[in-house]
From TrEMBL:
<dbReference type="InterPro" id="IPR046112">
    <property type="entry name" value="DUF6049"/>
</dbReference>
<feature type="region of interest" description="Disordered">
    <location>
        <begin position="496"/>
        <end position="523"/>
    </location>
</feature>
<feature type="region of interest" description="Disordered">
    <location>
        <begin position="729"/>
        <end position="780"/>
    </location>
</feature>
<feature type="compositionally biased region" description="Gly residues">
    <location>
        <begin position="731"/>
        <end position="749"/>
    </location>
</feature>
<keyword id="KW-1133">Transmembrane helix</keyword>
<keyword id="KW-0812">Transmembrane</keyword>
<feature type="transmembrane region" description="Helical">
    <location>
        <begin position="699"/>
        <end position="720"/>
    </location>
</feature>
<keyword id="KW-0472">Membrane</keyword>
<dbReference type="Pfam" id="PF19516">
    <property type="entry name" value="DUF6049"/>
</dbReference>
<protein>
    <submittedName>
        <fullName>DUF6049 family protein</fullName>
    </submittedName>
</protein>
């Protein structure tokens, strides 16, 4: 600094001020640059050099950790870790090796959540390589090339400390791009460590094993006595076949300590496949035969064996979306009644097909998200236990402590609050072995961490995984549960026991309000319009069934289809849900139209009274009854029609219904024919035709006129005869007629005779004046 001051003073004494300042600043800048460059050339400390190199390069190699066995090792076990390393750099890696590293013990559940997304390798937090000759050499790894590895290490060489969860890392170290050896890639997982049974109390763990599928079956059937069902596709057969999703769920769950949660609609659908069924779209008049009978029978047999010794919980038939009902459907009259019907049908379906009596007092809203309205709707249908999740019913202050799942929420109802971390571990794709393996280790680590939170307290924890796990997700869940079978820190319990567990006094027992429901889930709900359409279909069905002689043939398939219209499986598929509802309503309308009036042409009524026939067609396989046919005249003063006639038509037949009519005046009359149900509601579409009344024809008028003329002439003749007779009497000498002429005189040719009984002219007039006889047919 003194030297700098001296230099500055010299410059100031010999150089003009502006030039001095410029030289001074330039000199200082050059000195700073040289200083920085010099420092950059100093040798770095080994740790710092390794840290910076690893931070820059540990992302250049992909390390996948595919298997860890055993998943929860004991002291005398040998740990085997296998996977694959892939060189993603542009340089060949030489002198490489793969090794295990044991990091520090993890102390919180949130640290477990973050294990897969941490920063690149850090010597301080990832720990040193496990000692001994346990590494695997990778001599040369060209760009884009991968190598499999398998590391085998006695557990004692891991030098694990006290019981708990440890971070376990796999690293690839080597040389790349001319640099010295460094860590080029790392993958971390978790290692739960409790070599013996806990000294405290074990956690009672309930794992739900869901057997739910997308809606597959509509109400459509073939027009035969067997009511052969028609499926839109045969995709379900693939899920039931060996290796399929549903087949794997049954095969894996058979020997696991789980509670089966089953949608009865799936059982009913598969049971329908065990018989003859067809595949075809709504407009396909000749659906093709289905080919899944064999796998359907095998799957049901396997399921019957699998659930024999397990508790079975039956969801309401069709797995109705309770949240959608609570938020969008409860204000639609009659919508909530379907939930009650679905609950009642659930028990019958499961018991009939599987031979076990299920529990039907549990409701499971989507993802365990609940609010007060959801709980109200669920319990209104008889579900006294509502399966929620801890990210919906949160603990005060955001505590990570996991209390007992059961919570008393009033009215004799219980909320079963599943642990969110354990329940969501297996979400997402598990196709890659690395993802599946990490999920298994995370599940075991979380379950051990829960136990370590309060080992002196016995708690009941429930796991409610995704509703429709994929095959890979189911396999990962099964692997995790198998890791707990030795019962070192957990013991299994069914859902019924979890519901009866003594609640934790400090646990949150408050159900959140409607405003807390997640927007992401609310956007997937069925709209109000969907429930209105469902009710229109139900109303159509109610009107249709009352006229059927075998209503169950229609009520059963359509009632089930209406329940399926509310299924949780429609979330995220609004177009599919709408198409399904339209298909159900369209098919019902098609059946209703099978009973109809046959169109009628105009008719001519050629008499004063006649019979008008109207034909009713029944295209159904069963008979119809309870209908009445009404003919309405637009001009009753001109054409009067008798009272309505009852209608009863056998299956596949026609019936001609006849109405007596009376004509009062000539002219056209429009007539409406319509069917009505017993409750007075119109059935089907009316038909219209015109009756031309011509009962008083010109010929009839001529006959009548002639008759009247004859009557007049006859009357005139009588009058004249009587007048002449009176004149003769008067001319013959008195009223006594003594001089009235010879009593035997019959008169001449011009003399009139008295009228005799049975005069032909009078009879003719009387006969022609009568109206036409009844029963004259209508001219068509």
């Amino acid at each position: 600094m003194a030297e700098a001051a001296e230099v500055q003073g010299a410059f100031e004494g010999t150089t003009p001020a502006p030039a001095c300042r410029w030289f001074r600043r330039t000199a200082l800048l050059l000195a700073g640059v040289l200083l920085v460059v010099g420092l950059g050339q100093l040798p770095q400390a080994p740790a710092a050099r390794a840290e910076s190199a690893s931070s820059a390069s540990s992302r250049s190699v992909d390390v996948s950790l595919d298997t860890v066995t055993p998943v929860a090792p004991k002291q005398d076990d040998t740990l085997t870790v296998s996977g694959r390393v892939t060189n993603n750099t542009r340089s060949t890696i030489t002198g490489g090796h793969v090794a295990l590293r044991v990091g520090p013990q993890i102390t919180t559940r949130s640290d477990i959540d973050d294990i897969g997304g941490r920063a690149p390798f850090s010597a301080g937090s990832d720990g040193p390589e496990v000692g001994g000759n346990h590494a695997q050499k990778i001599d040369s790894l060209p760009p884009g090339v991968g190598r499999d590895f398998t590391l085998t290490v006695p557990v004692k060489d891991l030098e694990l400390g006290k019981d708990g969860v440890y971070q376990l890392g796999v690293t690839l170290s080597g040389q790349s791009g001319g640099q010295s050896e460094q860590v080029l890639g790392i993958q971390r997982t978790l290692l739960p460590w409790q070599p013996s049974t806990t000294d405290g109390k074990k956690t009672r763990l309930t794992f739900l094993w869901p057997l739910v599928s997308a809606t597959r079956l509509t109400a459509r059937t073939v027009s035969d006595q067997q009511q052969t069902p028609v499926f839109p596709n045969d995709d379900l057969a693939a899920e039931l076949a060996p290796g399929g999703r549903l087949q794997q769920l049954v095969a894996l769950g058979k020997n696991l300590p789980v509670t089966w949660v089953i949608d009865p609609d799936l059982l009913a659908t598969v049971e329908a496949m065990t018989k003859s069924y067809r595949i075809g779209g709504p407009d396909d008049q000749n659906p093709a035969p289905g080919r899944g009978q064999t796998v359907a029978k095998q799957w049901l047999n396997q399921l019957q064996q699998a659930v024999a010794d397990h508790q079975v919980v039956a969801l309401p038939f069709g797995d109705p979306d309770i949240a959608s009902l609570a938020h969008r459907g409860k204000d639609v009259p009659g919508a909530l009644s379907h939930l009650q019907s679905a609950t009642e049908l659930a028990s019958t379906t499961v018991e009939t097909i599987l031979g076990v009596k299920p529990r039907t007092d549990f409701a499971w809203p989507v993802e365990g998200a609940v609010d007060s309205s959801i709980v109200d709707v669920a319990t209104s249908a008889g579900a006294h236990n509502v399966i929620a999740r801890s990210d919906s019913v949160r603990e005060p202050g955001g505590s990570s402590y996991a209390p007992t799942a059961a919570r008393q929420i009033g009215g004799g109802n219980t909320a079963i609050v599943a642990d969110a971390r354990l329940s969501t571990v297996f979400d997402g794709e598990m196709i890659k072995a690395n993802d599946s393996s990490l999920a298994v280790q995370r599940f075991l680590a979380q379950s051990l961490m829960v136990n370590k939170q309060a080992p002196e307290n016995e708690r009941s924890i429930v796991v409610a995984p995704q509703r429709m796990p994929t095959t890979s997700q189911a396999q990962a869940m099964a692997s995790a549960l198998k890791g707990l079978t030795d019962g070192r820190w957990t013991q299994s319990a069914d859902l019924g026991d979890a519901a009866k567990a003594q609640p934790d006094p400090a646990a949150n027992q408050h159900i959140p309000g409607a405003g807390s429901y997640p927007d992401s889930l609310r956007s997937q709900e069925l709209p109000t319009e969907a429930f209105e359409e469902i009710q229109r279909t139900q109303s159509s069905l109610d009107s249709f069934k009352v006229i059927l002689t075998s209503p169950d043939r229609v009520v059963t398939p359509f009632g089930s289809a209406i329940m399926r219209e509310m299924s949780t499986s429609w979330r995220g598929d609004p177009k599919g849900a709408e198409a399904f509802r339209d298909a159900v309503q369209s098919y019902l309308d098609q059946l209703v139209r099978q009973v109809h009036l046959i169109a009628k042409s105009d008719a001519t009524l050629s008499g004063r009274s006649a019979t008008i026939p109207v034909t009713v067609q029944n295209g159904l396989l069963q008979g119809v009854r309870g209908l009445k046919l009404v003919l309405t005249s637009s001009q009753p003063n001109r054409l009067k029609i008798d009272a309505p006639q009852p209608v009863e038509v056998g299956g596949g037949r026609q019936q001609s219904v006849k109405f007596e009519t009376r004509a009062n005046a000539n002219g056209p009359v429009k007539v409406t024919a319509r069917l009505y149900a017993e409750d007075g509601q119109p059935y089907g579409e009316p038909i219209f035709f015109t009756v031309h009344v011509t009962s008083i024809t010109p010929m009839v008028l001529l006959v009548i006129a002639g008759g009247v003329l004859l009557l007049v002439l006859a009357g005139l003749r009588i009058y004249l005869q009587r007048k002449r007779a009176a004149a003769r009497k008067a001319a013959g000498g008195g009223p006594d007629g003594a001089d009235g002429g010879d009593p035997g005189d019959s008169g001449g040719p011009g003399d009139d005779k008295p009228e005799q009984p049975g005069d032909p002219a009078a009879e003719t007039g009387a006969r022609n004046g009568d109206p036409s006889g009844s029963g004259e047919k209508v001219e068509r």
